[in-house]
Specification:
This protein is α/β, with parallel strands linked by helices and 246 residues long. The chain has a single domain (2-245), classed as P-loop containing nucleotide triphosphate hydrolases (Rossmann fold), CATH 3.40.50.300. 39% of the residues lie in helices and 26% in strands. The protein has helices at 44-52, 75-80, 88-91, 98-108, 114-124, 141-153, 171-188, 199-205, 223-227, 234-245; strands spanning 2-11, 18-28, 33-38, 58-64, 67-68, 81-84, 159-163, 191-195, 208-213, 216-222. A hairpin with a 2-residue loop joins strand 4 (58-64) and strand 5. Helix 4 (98-108) crosses helix 5 (114-124) and helix 6 packs parallel to helix 7 (171-188). Bound molecules: adenosine-5'-triphosphate and magnesium ion (MG). Adenosine-5'-triphosphate (ATP) is lined by residues 11-12, 18, 20, 38, 40-46, 197.
Length: 246
Amino acid sequence: MLDITDLNVWFGQGRDRVDAVKAASLAVEQGESFGLVGESGSGKSTILRAITGLAPDWSGRITVDGTDLGRRRDRAFYKSVQMVFQDPYASLHPRHSVDQVLSETLHLHGLGEIDRRVAKLLDDVGLGPRFRFRYPHQLSGGQRQRVAIARALAGEPRLLLLDEPTSALDVSVQAEILNLLTDLRAERGLTYLMVSHDLPVVGHMCERLAVMKDGEIVEVMEVAALRRMEARHPYAQSLLQASVAG
Ligand SMILES: Nc1ncnc2c1ncn2[C@@H]1O[C@H](COP(=O)(O)OP(=O)(O)OP(=O)(O)O)[C@@H](O)[C@H]1O
Ligand SMILES: [Mg+2]
């Protein structure tokens, strides 16, 4: 579903240049959930941004479902690949109602029967019709993230890029959203690439994961190996140990 080969991503130029991702390669199978972990600033979000076209300076090869991505992302791309951000407060426009957000997104995807689809999307993410005309400030954090997920699902994507989708939420709400994501993947055969700093979350949600450090992928491992604490790279090992200790 997703193939990344020798990806380099940088910001700025000359002396200000930051090499955020260096020679990263990974492949995510159709229907798989793949985790991306590593310390702050290691380049996790930058990989997701490069895929969605939010990081303009990159080299290497990114293939989604067999199609090589060039410099520009077309409408078909955003129909099949969607991103869910960490902070649903920031990712929803404060003056747009849930109905507006979802209707406009469906419209942008060129879909009809908007009314029926909005109701269905709300239902799919566990929000009833009574949430339809609310504004973001009238929703809890978890409900907002459900709206953000509904918006991501509007075009019936195949690949979701999830950037710490629950880390801004209350612990009690995190599990609800993770369970929703698990159910949606099973029901729709979705593929996930999911960033998290929380190894137990990755252990619960993913089949495999990549460990990043200083812009590089230092290890790709099965979650089963994560459970057995079998990392080869010393950094990956220390991450596992810190997670158990913490
Ligand atoms: N727009 C930008 N301009 C300049 N540097 C950037 C930009 N975005 C990210 N960086 C730098 O790229 C590196 C990787 O950042 P990135 O956001 O991918 O890290 P991350 O692994 O997602 O970290 P975190 O866990 O804190 O979210 C960091 O050094 C960061 O400062
Ligand atoms: Mg990040």
